[in-house]
Amino acid sequence: MASDGDQIVYDPIDNQKPMRKADAYAESDGHYFATLESQQTYYHLLDKGFEVVLVNNKPVVKPREPVELYNDELIARSFSGKKGEMKLEGLGAGNYTLSFEETGAGAKLHVSVKDRSNDQIVSFEQKLGKGPDKMFETTFSVAVDQAPSKLEVTTDCTAKLRGSHVKCQIRFLEISKMQREIADARRTSQAVAKNGERMVEVKKGTKGLEMKLTWDKQLKSVVIRSVDAGGPADRAKLKEGIRVVGIQGIRLDTLSFKQVLRHLRNIPLTVVLLVTDTPEGFELAKPKATRTRNITELKKVPPKRPARPARPPR
Q1: Measured between alpha carbons, how far is 171 from 68 in angstroms, rounded to an integer?
Q2: CA-CA distance, 44 to 176, in Å (whole number)?
Q3: Among 101, 85, 106, CA closest to 161
Q4: Most confident among 34-48, 128-142, 290-304 (mean pLDDT)
Q5: Torsion angle of alpha carbons 153, 156, 162, 164, nearest 10°?
Q6: What is the pTM of this model?
């Protein structure tokens, strides 16, 4: 009976090449990636508004469609003082597109967006007239720590003894799962941090974090063995000898070193670390010397032919 690692899976970026689950470089969000490059390409696409769907049991990347939250007409009348009003509450994190079109005598828009603390995110006024000035479109974003937010739109008629009719449409594209996970990792890391520990964010490059970790038996902790100059870890001011005690809000006390490395590999782009300095006077143990062989190429050597038997004398 075949094991789970023998199951055939497909990379969502290069879905033409089947691979064994056990041979995948990393697994994230239920998808398996053949290389670091395909993993990062996938999450960059998600961040730009794409999604993954299954076509013939293969993952395929396609653009996400925004959701329509509102589509109605706001009516205002100058002779009665009536204003057009619209309110939306509970706006989640993501990108919003507001579209307006005046089909009446002329209008003035008042738009306000406030976050959950009632702080202003967006506030502006815009006049709508006739011809090319009758239409207006704008966008705004709500971050994870600003949601849920609320939107208010009011319209005033700018023509005397007339009425304005403003068509209003609101479309919403939810924040990507990766951005939400990064925000959750920041929040959780802050919650589980102990005295003397600090949070550091490192964005993976095309070669990963470009640092090496080791397990120190004396400290019983993951420690940075080395940092490549100019790499992501170096730019984040991580140095040799710093202890890593948490990743994405998960403390490493109960994880094996192998599990730590696997967890790091499965994180696609932004790694949120909890780190702390080693005790004063601590020296990192030198790695044990090991015998290595450099194998540049393996060639199959054809078997030797058996020697021919000697001819009998005539």
Answers
A1: 4
A2: 10
A3: 106
A4: 128-142
A5: -20
A6: 0.67
